[in-house]
Amino acid sequence: MTRRVYVPRGYQPPITQHILDHPRCNVWAGMGLGKCVATLTAVKIQRLCGDPGPVLVLAPLRVARSTWPDEARKWAHLKDLQVEPILGTAAERATALRRKAGVFTINYENLAWLTEHLGEEWPFRMVVADESTRLKNLRLSYRVSTKGKKYLAGQGGVRAKALGRVAHTKVKRFVNLTGTPSPNGLSDLWGQNWFVDAGRSLGRTYDSFKQRWFTKSYDGYGMTPLPNAMQEIKAAMAPYTLTVRAEDHFDLREPIVNTLLVDLPVSARKLYREMERDMFMQLEGHAVEAFNAASRTIKCLQLANGAAYVDDKQTWKRVHDEKIEALKEVIEEASGAPVLVAYHFKSDLARILKALPFCRVLDASPRTLVDWNAGRIKCLLAHPASAGHGLNLQDGGNILVYFGHWWNLEERQQMLERIGPVRQMQAGHDRPVFVHNIIARDTIDELVLERIESKRDVQDILLDAKRARGL
User: Which of the residues 42, 140, 194, 436 could staple to 16 if both were Cys, CB 3.0 to 4.6 A apart?
Assistant: First the structure.
């Protein structure tokens, strides 16, 4: 892979500088805004300035496995920065820890294992919590021992408690990264922020945080923020918090496009390679073989998505769920904002509905359209062929995910146009449009995306890919 020259967007150097200037800080920047490379650039500068200690990045599994290593491999200025995922079995994770690397990544679910495995030998002077809302469930309170002495006790999520044991004793630098710091309200902020300043700004304990800025809800169960809570909490965190808003830095006439790469599991990769090899071998054959090549192209697209049809009766079998996991992350980061998802195969629709039962399908019912535009649908699933000319979806949301991909450029463009920048502005919505392409790495997905971006002939793209693979 040829490394690219890093030409930062206007807001990325301030992210890097903020991390350098504030050893413990928050960076609130949404998906696709380049906070990973900006953070790795800060790590690179720190190492050049004589702080060579390894850095630990906490992230969701897919992000820890692929996104951070990919970013380090993508950019020329990061060529000397090795990123090592700590994943797999306990033995494989222990082996990864023994390797030499500047940055190690691990998924949140393995935090408890990591702290127990390392014990007092914790080596990470800097911790980056990507999607830091995963730490929001930390709870601390003062308890009284049998001898009458007060002590600080930990409660809440296992991962947050595990990290809390070392966060302020062995970690010098701590960075929270997320685009949605308070997805369920202001109460989400305390747990994350404790890792930054040990409660100095929002309260030493969660109870003191509640007492200062909340009151009991009318039903007696939940909490309601006091009238000035948002302004006061924001002001308390301001000295070490940087917020990057897409609408402040992008031309709202163009969508903000983000590519989410997923890796096929070994078993799925084997099936895919067999089908791809047969497809390429028949590309230049006779008419009947060309037909078979076309059918295999469809099979490759199905396998990239995670399922494949096995007979003429529309029977399909699940192969993997990598794209569904990526879709879950997009919806989670959307923090309740509606998400429009483009699917292609009915097998994908069935799998998404099973994994995310709150999703709705764009159908012929006028009620579905009304509910979407009123913001009552969290995730709307639509086939590009059914979301064509004249359909107005712009009031419902500004986030589009292409889960599956197809060669038809017009259908794809029409899908985008349903919530596109022009329609957003015409409807009076001063907000950017986000487009997330979920792409299976080293599959036909990438060739379809090339077709979309270059408008080249499909046959030419496939033949070039065939030659590149030496087939």
Answer: 42
Structure tokens at 203: 């309260």
- Catalogue the long-range contacts made by 235-239 (C-beta closer than 8 Å, 24 or more residues apart): 236/201, 236/202, 237/26, 237/189, 237/193, 237/201, 237/202
Q: Which residue has the higher pLDDT, 302 or 156?
A: 302
Q: How confident is the model over 177-205, as pLDDT tens digits? A: 998 888 778 989 999 999 999 999 999 88
Q: What is the pLDDT of residue 13?
A: 94
> Which amino acid makes up residue 257?
V
Token pair belonging to 321: 């769920």
**The CATH number of the domain covering residues in 12-248:** 3.40.50.10810
Which residues face 414 on adjacent strands? none
Mind listing the pLDDT tens digit for each residue in 319-329? 999 999 999 99
Rounded CA gap, 444 and 461, in Å?
Answer: 10
Query: Which residues, at least 6 apart from 313, have a Cβ–Cβ distance to it below 8 Å?
Result: none
H/E/C letters for each residue in the chain?
CCCECCCCCCCHHHHHHHHHHCCEEEEEECCCCCHHHHHHHHHHHHHHCCCCCCEEEEECHHHHHHHHHHHHHHEHHHCCCCEEECCCCHHHHHHHHCCCCCEEEEEHHHHHHHHHHHHHHCCCCEEEEECHHHHCCCEEEEEECCCCCEEEEEECCHHHHHHHCCCCCCCCEEEEEECCCCCCCHHHHHHHHHHHHCCCCCCCCHHHHHHHHEEECCCCCCEEECCCHHHHHHHHHHHHEEEECHHHCCCCCCCEEEEEEECCCHHHHHHHHHHHHHHHHCCCCCHHHHHHHHHHHHHHHHHHHCEEECCCCCCEEECCCHHHHHHHHHHHHCCCCCEEEECCCHHHHHHHHHHCCCCEECCCCHHHHHHHHCCCCCEEEECHHHCCCCCCCCCCCCEEEECCCCCCHHHHHHHHHCCCHHHHHHCCCCCCCEEEEEEECCCHHHHHHHHHHHCCCHHHHHHHHHHHCCC
Domain spans of the chain?
Answer: 12-248, 256-262+319-468
**Amino acid identity for residue 46 in this structure:** Q
CATH 3.40.50.300 fits 256-262+319-468, yes or no: yes
Question: Are 56 and 128 contacting, i.e. CB atoms less than 8 angstroms apart?
Answer: yes
Residue 340 contacts residue 393 (beta carbons within 8 Å) = yes
Place 400 in a pLDDT band, splitting at 50, 70 and 90: very high
β-pair partners for 154 = 140
Whether 256-262+319-468 and 12-248 are alike in CATH topology: the answer is: yes
